Amino acid sequence: MFDTDVYVRRRKTLIGKMSSAPQGRRGIAIFPGNAEAPQNYRGNDYRFRQESSFLYFWGIDEPGYAAILDLDSGQETVYADDVDIADIIWMGPQPSVQSKAERVGVARSAPASEFGKAVAAAKSQGRTVHFLPPSRYYNTLLLSSLLGVPAEAVRKTAPVQGGTGCCGKAVTASEELVRAVISMRLIKEPCEIEEIDKACGIGWLMHTEARRGCRPGAREQDIVGRMEGITISKGWGVSFTTILSQNGETLHNHSHHQTITPGRLLLIDAGAESNTHYASDFTRTYPCSGKFTTQQREIYDIVESCNELAFSLSKPGITYRQIHLAVARHMLEGLSGLGIVRGDIDEMVAEGTAGLFMPHGLGHNMGIDVHDMEDLGEDLVGYDEDQKRSSQLGLGSLRMARRLCPGHVITDEPGIYFIPALIRKWKIEGTDKGFVNFPALEKYHGFGGIRLEDDVLITEDGARRLGPERLPIKSDEIESIMAEERL
Amino acid sequence: MFDTDVYVRRRKTLIGKMSSAPQGRRGIAIFPGNAEAPQNYRGNDYRFRQESSFLYFWGIDEPGYAAILDLDSGQETVYADDVDIADIIWMGPQPSVQSKAERVGVARSAPASEFGKAVAAAKSQGRTVHFLPPSRYYNTLLLSSLLGVPAEAVRKTAPVQGGTGCCGKAVTASEELVRAVISMRLIKEPCEIEEIDKACGIGWLMHTEARRGCRPGAREQDIVGRMEGITISKGWGVSFTTILSQNGETLHNHSHHQTITPGRLLLIDAGAESNTHYASDFTRTYPCSGKFTTQQREIYDIVESCNELAFSLSKPGITYRQIHLAVARHMLEGLSGLGIVRGDIDEMVAEGTAGLFMPHGLGHNMGIDVHDMEDLGEDLVGYDEDQKRSSQLGLGSLRMARRLCPGHVITDEPGIYFIPALIRKWKIEGTDKGFVNFPALEKYHGFGGIRLEDDVLITEDGARRLGPERLPIKSDEIESIMAEERL
Questions:
Q1: Which helix (H) or strand (E) segment is B295 a member of?
Q2: How far is the C-alpha of A401 from the C-alpha of A385, rounded, in Å?
Q3: Which phi and psi (to 5°) does residue B7 adopt?
Q4: Disulfide engineering: B154 pairs with which of A148, A262, B143, B421, CB 3.0-4.6 Å?
Q5: CB interface of A with B, residues 66-105, below 8 Å
């Protein structure tokens, strides 16, 4: 948890941003925190994760909390119940709700049941009730019940199509609130960057453990357990389900039942969440033999130079869409050099040929969520007003396209994959427009995929890779470290 | 996953049990499997955990599945969608839904959207729709929408108060289905016992790691990470959130921010879930110094002998309620020997004096859920028809009171805790009826708590502790092992 004044300042800024209506007609902004999430039965819950915007504005990292910010009077209230003797037996003595509220600079607290009453009172007075689209099904049910509308309406409403509140108008998440929150969370404060650096430090440890564990005969699941153990020892846990696979051509591969096999590549995309819930997200790809084959090294070096290019271009003023396209061009040049594609590079970039090899975007925003604020609307988070999302494979998946500003934290994660089903589809459908040398591609059947990812902060005049130390990435460096570690 | 015939047999047995109505009027039993559960945003999900009864009858361990058992025709159908090219890019090629259905002996599969239609068709024909009470909020929303009733009605309806289906009658979970499922899952099959033994083996490893890590200066969180890493390396993960605390008097203490301190006790209640989702659940309590103080050893030995007593009494024919009471008596005798309680033991047992020291039950059923089937209704699962749940502190929390049968898997987990708030309350309110020597209790302020838990299978003529090897438990044994491990 940060210092009290961090939360006080954030809420004050939010009120300032929520001033499109004249004072007295602004309404309230409601923040239901997360409840426990049942794993297999109620009472056996997943590790508790607080709702991200609740954490950002109200800081209290416990289930059963909610808060209301009155945009007209400025009154702030935290809602939760104090513990009783049964709670003390099972969960131990707890500070009072009031003292927890004061810790984050909120003077007023009330029992949990008052939250619904306050929402109902605002509704009945015809005041606007602003809320963010809920991520969890529990909060979907709660908002549905409080606002008196079907669950599907609360949940399905994307803020981009939404109205501005719930009363008299369409009952949707409030686009005004969503935009205000995005504008704040997108630019990381120094205290946040410090936490992301910590999460990156844990990520470094988990990836180092993985590289050391990548030896022929090792079980993938064993390595994953050791990596995730580190995230629990040092932080909250993983920031997303670990991807560790010799089938790296499957972008989000969560199966870990294979044994490390010489000659294959092991792709590891994994990150940690700090105890304060800031994320890291790194990808490295290792040769299971400890040495790359010539074919592997050729592709690896292209991906590595794409990663480097993206970083070198990252600075305020340029859009991440431009950098994605520069990377696509560089990648196609490399693949052209290997005879995998052929023809005019400009045309290939325009036609989206790179999408066959990298069917995802170059990166995404990262913060309290590893894909920061994804549920507030990917386009609102990742695109400027004057940008339109592409429908091309690859570029269309770009989550962060915005013009870069100091304080943006983004991932830089180019990749090249040889996906049999996708290659077959492009070949049959002629999607490649003749740019792809399919016979040459046959040699890459069973290759897998390579992705190399760092976390990057945009600074005043450039960029900085986050974390106390960069994970080794150059192909020579990887081979010499793996040789040393296997001694 | 078990052999195909296991699932075929289970569903056949279930149909046999669901025959209270004449053939042709039995209706359908619907089984919505679990969806992914969002952690902080949709798309960043917790590790997927299938719905336990879905796993039991349908075996398929993936999100997005549902199944229907037609109790009149015997027709079985699995519902899910095959993958498309976008899925293949992100999740890899997958066997077809049809082939997955056949693997568990189901001849018929259909797209996910057909599930809702089949339920609607049954409803419109006036057929009974049997369902189990949903644990997850997602399935609550789904059932609410399919059955056309408010979410609260689907979710809040306890089966004990419920009707027998949804059509024309009260819309509640089906008590008939709940009872049939409980009667089956309660008695573990040999293939299930083998899996629980495996989960106990992983539990042994994690507890051994914890004991070795219990050294002055170590951080609790570090130990927890290493334990949980083992459960991910060897199985699915933890079967419940790890309890590891020097404040053992808090029964479910999930905070791990302290440093191991000489003189204190470290209580560890933790278990693993096997890759096939069977649970283990063990508790041990260690002296942080490596040696017990006299006071600690006195209490420890009482708890250890309670654990032993419960095990020695466990065999078919006796109720677990009787064993809980025998343990309470034995515990009070021990505490009486230390001068902590005084008076007639029979009266103390009857008055529930043991509840001050052990405010929980002796144990619970364990299987696919660590508290097996808790959401089907604690009393239906843990109590025979002729048993009534007590309202006393301690005995009232007994989750498993039934007459023991071969195939029951239960925990044996006595504990003694000195809970300042509870002691104060009993003193002020006179709840102890004069049996408690409060001045003597003052010496135990800051003592913490001790719990010792094993997992036990009821056999034809007695009981067997589960797992390949028992975790050391005798006080002498603990001290000598800890001394050795610290060399």
A1: helix B294-313
A2: 11
A3: -70, -40
A4: B143
A5: 85, 88-93
Contacts of residue A20, defined as CB under 8 A and 6 or more positions apart, other chains included, come to A176
Q: Find, among B122, B137, B128, B130, the residue nearest to B159 by Cα.
A: B130
Q: CA-to-CA distance for B476 and B309, rounded, in angstroms?
A: 18
Pairing of strands A129-130, A28-32: parallel
Interface of A with B in 178-217 (CB under 8 A): none
Strands, sheet with B463-465, edge to edge from the N-terminal-most edge strand: B409-412, B454-458, B463-465
Query: Length of chain A in residues, anyone?
Result: 487
Listed in sequence order, the residues at least 6 apart from A126 whose beta carbon sits closer than 8 Å to its beta carbon are A167, A168
Let me know the angle formed at the C-alpha of A211 by A209 and A214, rounded to the nearest 5 degrees.
Answer: 110
Q: Is A1 on the interface with B (CB under 8 A)?
A: no
Exposed, middle or buried by CB within 10 Å (0-12, 13-18, 19+), for B318?
A: middle
How many residues are recorded in chain B?
487
Single out the residue of B327, B387, B389 nearest to residue B362, CA to CA: B327
Residues in chain A within 8 Å Cβ distance of B148: none
**Residues B372-415: pLDDT tens digits?**
999 999 999 999 999 999 999 999 999 999 999 999 999 999 99
Selection from B445, B387, B398 nearest residue B417 by Cα: B445
Location of structure tokens 């049959």? A428
Q: Which amino acid is residue A392, in one-letter code?
A: Q
| Residue A38 contacts B, CB cutoff 8 Å | yes
Kindly list the strands in the beta sheet with A265-270, ordered across the sheet, starting from the edge strand earlier in the chain. Answer: A243-245, A265-270, A282-287
Max alpha carbon distance in chain A (Å)? Answer: 75
Contact between B228 and A224 using a beta-carbon 8 Å cutoff:
no
- Token pair 């289906």 is at which residue? B165
- Go through the domains of chain B in sequence order and give each one's CATH number: 4-185 (3.40.350.10), 190-485 (3.90.230.10)
Minimum Cα–Cα distance from B359: chain A residue:
A89
- How far apart CA B33 and CA B134 sit, in angstroms, is 10
Hey, are the CB atoms on A374 and B91 less than 8 Å from each other?
no
C-alpha distances in Å from residue A171, one per residue of A144, A153, A163, A238: 10, 7, 7, 35
The tens-digit pLDDT sequence of chain A (487 residues) is 999 999 999 999 999 999 988 988 999 999 999 999 999 999 899 999 999 999 999 999 999 999 999 999 999 999 999 988 888 888 888 899 999 999 999 999 999 999 999 999 999 999 999 999 999 999 998 998 898 887 777 765 433 333 334 444 445 678 899 999 999 999 999 999 999 999 999 999 999 999 999 999 999 999 999 999 999 999 999 999 999 999 988 877 778 889 999 999 999 999 999 999 999 999 999 999 999 999 999 999 999 999 999 999 999 999 999 999 999 999 999 999 999 999 999 999 999 999 999 999 999 999 999 999 999 999 999 999 999 999 999 999 999 999 999 999 999 999 999 999 999 999 999 999 999 999 999 999 999 999 999 999 999 999 999 999 999 999 999 999 999 998 8
CB-CB: which of B93, B230, B240 is closest to A421? B93
A445 touches chain B (CB under 8 A): no
Q: Which two tokens stand for residue A445?
A: 């059947």
Name the pTM for this structure.
Answer: 0.94
